[in-house]
Amino acid sequence: MFNNAGASHVVIDVLGSFADNGPARFVAVPPSRVLDTRSGTGAPVARVDQNPLVLKLTGAGGVPPSNVTGVLMNVTVVGPTDNTYITVYPPDGDRPLASNLNAGPGQIVPNMVLGRLAADGTVAIYNNGGTVDLVADVMGYFTK
Q1: pLDDT the model gives residue 4
Q2: In CATH, what number is assigned to the domain containing residue 52?
């Protein structure tokens, strides 16, 4: 870790690892927009509050309709009304205590996310505070 100036706190969340003999294979795809709550791509035009947005990813943005366990996405929070964090997780399980990105009021903050999919090919995206717009682009997926 490198901090250019001053003092800083650092939080690191381990999401997983890669292995040559792992159970899944990564397949890169050209970046494809799968969610934009400002335009209605992937979800209705609406700002997201504390009700998790559930997004179907299998069969969208170059992701096959089946045999997919996770995706590589760039997730962007746009214009939060309050300090917040965003967490991406499979909606058929408990929401983890870790965040994928953090933002303050009015900011636009992107971050790369490895999202594990639920059995039905979805992820949940949770916004902790205020309301936000969300944008997500898929860049790859993991096969079974």
Answers
A1: 86
A2: 2.60.120
Q: The domain containing residue 40 runs over which residues?
A: 26-143
SS3 20: coil
How crowded is residue 48: how many other Cβ atoms within 10 Å of its Cβ?
21
Residue 11 placed within a domain: no
Q: Which pLDDT tens digit goes with each residue over 117-137? A: 999 999 999 999 999 999 999
Exposed, middle or buried, 101 (CB in 10 Å: 0-12/13-18/19+)?
Answer: middle
Please report whether residue 49 resides in a domain: yes
Q: What is the pTM of this model?
A: 0.85
Q: Of 127, 6, 135, 120, which Cα lies nearest the Cα of 65?
A: 120
Give the pLDDT of residue 20: 66
CA separation for the pair 31, 74 (Å, rounded) = 9
pLDDT in tens, 53-82: 999 999 999 999 999 999 999 999 999 999
Q: Is residue 12 part of a domain?
A: no
